[in-house]
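Appendix B: a complete holo record

For completeness, this appendix reproduces one full record from the ligand-bound portion of the collection. The bound molecule is zinc ion. The inputs are the chain sequence and the ligand SMILES; the output is the full three-dimensional arrangement of the complex, encoded as structure tokens. No fields have been trimmed.
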Amino acid sequence: MLTALLNQQVFTTIHYSREELRGLRRKDVSFVCPHCSSRLTMKIGSRNIPHFAHMSDADCEKVRGETPQHLLSKQLLYDRLSSLYENVSLEHYIKELKQVADIYVKTDTADIAIEIQCSTIPISEIVGRTYGYHRQGITPFWILTQSLKSKKLLNLTTFQQAFIRYSPPLDYFLLQFLPDRGIFQLYTHLFPVSGTAFMSAAPIIIPVSKFTLPISIPDAPVLHPYSLSTWTNFRTKWVYNKIHFNKTRTDVFLREVYGEGDTFLYLPLFIGLPVIPHGIHIRNHEVEWQYYLWKDCLKKDRLFSVESVSKALYRRLIKGHIELRSFPLQKSDEVIKRIADGYLRLLEEVHVLRKVNDTFQLIEPWSCPDHFSAFEKHQHDFFPKWKHILKKQ
Ligand SMILES: [Zn+2]
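The structure of the chain with zinc ion bound, as generated:
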């Protein structure tokens, strides 16, 4: 904690030098917790930011154990926001919610609660806190400060994925704060190639001295180092992994493909197209959910619409064959409909479907190649159309 009560007044360590704080500690003045009124000790090391701690963690429900990273993040963000707004408070207690926001900003138009998240907590807690803030008319702003695994692809845990948000110029993005370097990294144009690996544009660096609410993006062009031209490779890799690591008899998806008499290895390339941007909401690989749509809808009905395809996706969701990612910081209205719409448009672009008024129709009847040379021919015919789609991204 960076704040305590001293003689009923709020006292914040970050406004004092280490020497001044040591002087106060020598005088043995009595700092108490604003939440549970128990006495606090002041910790003044040479490395960490001076802060208060309970004598024992069990004393207080409101204040969780804090890492040096968390303390530093609070100080940097508090300093920056205090230079922008008059009314900024640290470790602000919200009576109605019985919880403490790391930083609280009152502007002319909004109340903003900043939550700095270093440790992994249940996603249900993020959902609950976010909902609570909205109910009180407060805008929550969550900041992830965990380190991310990033090489060619960005690898994100389910918890880290919960911080993904959407904004049209950035598509799906993730904001990460690195307090030790005093910068934010903004990963934009995220698109998954598996349950945990994501393609992204090169991260945009925003120094904390440029941080604003909402965050403003520098005007530099977005770089796409890992373009979708590699999508075919990721798709193929996924298909082979599926065969290697799954038992055909127990895999729900493979059982359905074989039951239908289709050859999994030779599924047409228009099953497994990247539906950018909203396809990210579905945790399953594109091959899986798009195959289900073919089976349930496209090859069965003569004419179909965005609505009928959306309904088919919902039915698979309810059966548990398809799973959605949890993006609690992001409104996900009509996401299924947007995905269905995006997929049908793609199929129209690659000349698999034609549009007839408000409905769609297959241009040629469905057939799955059943041996390698037939698949090769399909690849050969399809690739020019597909290449055009991938190049656009
Ligand atoms: Zn306390």
